[in-house]
Design goal:
By secondary structure, the protein is of the alpha/beta class. Strand 5 and strand 6 form a beta hairpin. It has a seven-stranded mixed sheet with strand order 2-10-9-8-7-3-4, sandwiched between helices. The N and C termini lie far apart (55 Å). Bound molecules: pyridoxal-5'-phosphate (PLP).
């Protein structure tokens, strides 16, 4: 018998499965609404101008050895300022442990591994539903998962009352994963008032909030506004963890640049936790690639490039918001008797349409439109050119 005879194929990833089905469809009118990466109004992937200019600036840098600690710590310092605020005391006083991570996924994985090392009996609470890879990441780190109520199927928005009940009923000191903005897949975010209540209840129960920030800037078009949830938790003096990704908001998906930070009671604890995180990373993949981090640190530490980025980010968020409005209007114009308000109420990259798995299958079969079977539409795939067609198809299958 062969060494690997007992190995069967892994279950298909729901998101990669959509891309495969899309690629296999020969129809010229096919549309991929599965991808989670930004596309322009022609459906093309985008390289931001700030990234092009940063590329030009760093051309000729020597990459053969790992990056100087200076560049790396600059990227981390600028990253934590993005989430905790430019003037935040925790950053100024060094009361955090920050490390570079392999994009948002790597930051989550690193945290999960850290959680297992120092709280091996703990659980992680996920919103129901959540990004499908969260389940895999914490499972592979051998942390058991629980879920908390999040989405309300009838309103296609947040089920706030049930969410608060679950926070209250979880054992003291539980670990919770929160999406600070642009919740994936539902696009439903708590309001400012609701975040205040969530933060308060976390304080009462001494829960640990872990924020997975994969879309900062994509919900409102404004980096600070999208960090509002985290700022509220900061005001309430929570020690939080945060995974950041530059895949979407800088369009650096292929470069895998991210940051994991954990707030600490003082800088001594920060140094201890940082050394533990670095040790975990070293055993998993050594050190991350250097090109992307150089791009990010160049953009964030140059005021012209940074403001160019802020403008480009706003343009991306605006395009998505415009497509939400147009999609909703077009479906309504067709005389749909159903309510489509949620398309414009939801925020960020995704619209949780409420379409059933059967309706999603019909969209693929009859209209060559592809999305995950939970009915999640990537709004980035909707363009001026295809929005009519998409509206019509949705109306056909939904009525
Ligand atoms: N977290 C959430 C909620 C996401 O939606 C994603 C990407 O889809 C990620 C994390 C990880 O993204 P990446 O590893 O590409 O930065």
């Amino acid at each position: 018998v062969g060494c690997w005879d007992h190995v069967g194929p892994a279950p298909k990833d729901p998101i990669n499965g959509v891309t495969e089905a899309f690629l296999a469809d020969p129809s010229p009118s096919k549309i991929n609404l599965g991808v989670g990466a930004y596309r322009d109004d022609k459906g093309r992937p985008v390289v931001l101008q700030c990234v092009r200019e940063a590329e030009a600036k760093i051309a000729g840098s020597v990459f053969l050895e790992s990056l100087s600690a200076v560049v790396n710590s600059k990227m981390i310092e600028e990253s934590v300022k993005l989430v905790y605020g430019n003037d935040s005391d925790v950053v100024k006083e060094g009361r955090f442990a920050g490390v570079q991570a392999l994009s948002g996924t790597g930051a989550c994985r690193l945290f999960a591994e850290f959680q297992r090392r120092f709280h091996p009996e703990s659980h992680i609470y996920f919103p129901d539903p959540t990004w499908s890879n969260h389940h895999n990441i914490w499972r592979d780190a051998q942390i058991r998962e629980r879920t908390y109520h999040y989405y309300h199927h009838d309103s296609k928005g947040l089920n706030f009352a049930a969410l608060i009940d679950d926070i209250k009923n979880a054992p003291h000191g539980s670990f919770f994963l929160l999406h600070p903005c642009a919740h994936n897949p539902t696009g439903a975010d708590p309001t400012e008032e609701q975040w205040r209540e969530i933060s308060y209840q976390f304080k009462v129960k001494n829960h640990f909030p872990f924020f997975d920030m994969a879309y900062q800037g994509f919900a409102s078009g404004d980096l600070d506004k999208d960090a509002q949830a985290i700022r509220i938790f900061l005001e309430d003096k929570h020690l939080i963890g945060c995974a950041q990704s530059y895949a979407k908001n800088m369009g650096l998906y292929g470069h895998r640049v991210g940051c994991l930070s954990i707030l600490c009671s003082d800088s001594k604890q920060g140094a201890a936790i940082r050394s533990q995180l670095q040790q975990i990373a070293r055993a998993m993949y050594g050190s991350p690639p250097v090109h992307g981090v150089l791009l990010v640190s160049t953009i964030l530490s140059d005021s012209d490039l940074k403001s160019l980025w802020v403008d480009e980010l706003k343009d991306m968020a605006d395009r998505i918001r415009t497509m939400r409005t147009t999609l909703r209007e077009n479906i309504e114009k067709l005389g749909s008797p159903l309510c489509w308000e949620h398309i414009t109420n939801q925020l960020g990259m995704f619209c949780f349409s409420g379409l059933s798995p059967d309706q999603v299958d019909r969209l693929a079969r009859e209209f060559h439109i592809y999305m995950t079977r939970d009915g999640r539409i990537s709004m980035a795939g909707v363009t001026t050119g295809n929005v009519n067609y998409v509206a019509n198809a949705i109306h056909e299958v939904a009525s």
